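User: Hi! I have a protein structure encoded as tokens and I'd like to know what sequence might fold into it. I'm fairly new to this, so please keep things simple.
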């Protein structure tokens, strides 16, 4: 895998051209991560008031971390750093999945909440990205 800047201020990766600062927006994992973060914000908005600075805040931070780390990694200096940030996104997703399960156990959310499906799909996409970049 070769990353190199081209004259048109873009990155060339596997013959794909992306504008500088925007490669993450092309990723399905980033798109699903953004939708997951939105869903988590909606989910936690109905949590009890006493959880505003507890579980709800932790869930929001973990959810935001998933697409944010993909974006940060894509803006870094190369594949090794990108892989590192994909790993951080995967860790944040695992943290969030645990917190969603806890929210269900505490009866703050339904066991069939859309966040479960989004988290599962995001996880599969992140795993695929991690495998792809690990072999480069």
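Assistant: Happy to help. Inverse folding works backwards from shape to sequence: for each of the 136 positions I chose a residue that suits the local structure. Here it is:
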């Amino acid at each position: 895998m070769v990353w190199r800047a081209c004259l048109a201020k873009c990155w060339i990766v596997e013959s794909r051209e992306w504008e500088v600062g925007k490669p993450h927006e092309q990723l399905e994992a980033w798109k699903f991560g953004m939708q997951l973060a939105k869903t988590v914000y909606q989910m936690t908005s109905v949590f009890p008031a006493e959880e505003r600075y507890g579980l709800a805040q932790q869930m929001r931070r973990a959810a935001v971390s998933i697409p944010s780390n993909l974006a940060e990694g894509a803006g870094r200096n190369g594949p090794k750093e990108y892989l590192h940030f994909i790993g951080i996104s995967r860790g944040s997703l695992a943290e969030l999945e645990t917190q969603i399960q806890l929210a269900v156990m505490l009866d703050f959310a339904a066991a069939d909440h859309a966040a479960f499906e989004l988290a599962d799909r995001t996880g599969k996409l992140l795993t695929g990205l991690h495998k792809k970049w690990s072999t480069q």
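A useful reference point when you look it over: Residues 23-134 form a domain with the de novo design (two linked rop proteins) fold (CATH 1.20.1440.60). Feel free to ask if any position seems puzzling.
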